[in-house]
Amino acid sequence: MPADPDDERTGLGGVHLKYLHHCPRQLWLYGRGYRPEHTSDLVAFGEAVNDTTFTRRRDVDLGEASIDWVTTGATVHETKSSRTPSPAHAAQVRHYCLLLERRGVAVRGGTVHYPLIRRTTDVPWNDDARAQAEADEDQARAVLAAPTAPPRLPRNQCRGCSYRDYCWGE
């Protein structure tokens, strides 16, 4: 069954969920159109890693989200330039699994690839993961609907964030 564009559950991409877990303020700003990522060297580096790793795969465009690739058997794959696995990365994969499931795909789970450290992290897809993905969507929508920005994180947690200048006025 194809996704219904009038369904309130549509419209959130993986970036929304990644930002929710990294910094709700970043999500709130992103939702209001503030997009400094194009000026970030770290974002450019991540895009280069993504473009030069696993080059035989194809992105899967879901409209609101773009999955790095999906293998036979419906396993979602996401590539990250980070050297440290993050709960935000797993949340992003769970969100992709949920989006695919809503489109009638029998999803198996996902894998986050960290080519710089040559590691992978498996992300299970089960009832608990589905419930977490749905709760994350609800939480992201609440952040986006808030009339004011959430508080900024402690400065030491903002290292490398493309939104740092906005939040800290540097």
Automatic annotation (TrEMBL):
It comes from the Bacteria. Gene3D superfamilies: 3.90.320.10. InterPro entries: Dna2/Cas4_DUF83, PDDEXK-like_dom_sf. Residues 14-168 form the DUF83 domain. This is CRISPR-associated protein Cas4. It comes from Streptomyces synnematoformans.
